[in-house]
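We emphasize that the prediction below concerns an isolated chain of 133 residues; any contacts that depend on oligomerization or on bound cofactors are therefore not represented. The input was used exactly as deposited, without trimming of termini.
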Amino acid sequence: MKWFTGGMAEISREKVRSYHGVRMTMLKAQIQKKKAARQSIANLGSGLLGELARSEDLHERIDEENNLHVRLKLSSLVSGSIEFSTGKEEQVKGRIKLEVYPGQEPLEIARRMLLESARMAEEMGFSGQLDRD
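Result of the prediction step, given as a token string:
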């Protein structure tokens, strides 16, 4: 979580029951500052962000409250890489609040933000592999 957020998030932990009744621990990281949030998005890596920006189903990942939802494979994160989840494995869920003003299209805002983050990731050398230092 620290790596994902660049150490700039408020991290909380809560014991809850899943939909099926299994007890689990939910970790939540929340970043309030826009610049810190943009930097943490770049940690996903230029390849994954570019792929997401160009995906045909990007509109399906945006809800009515202008949140962009991303699901990543927990197993890939543990092994040091970042991959999208197919929905059949344990996941890490991410929600990115898009700043959308009246007259703007959330889909276009999301694409622009993802492409800018991909460019930032490229410039910073973030490939989508976790830095274990």
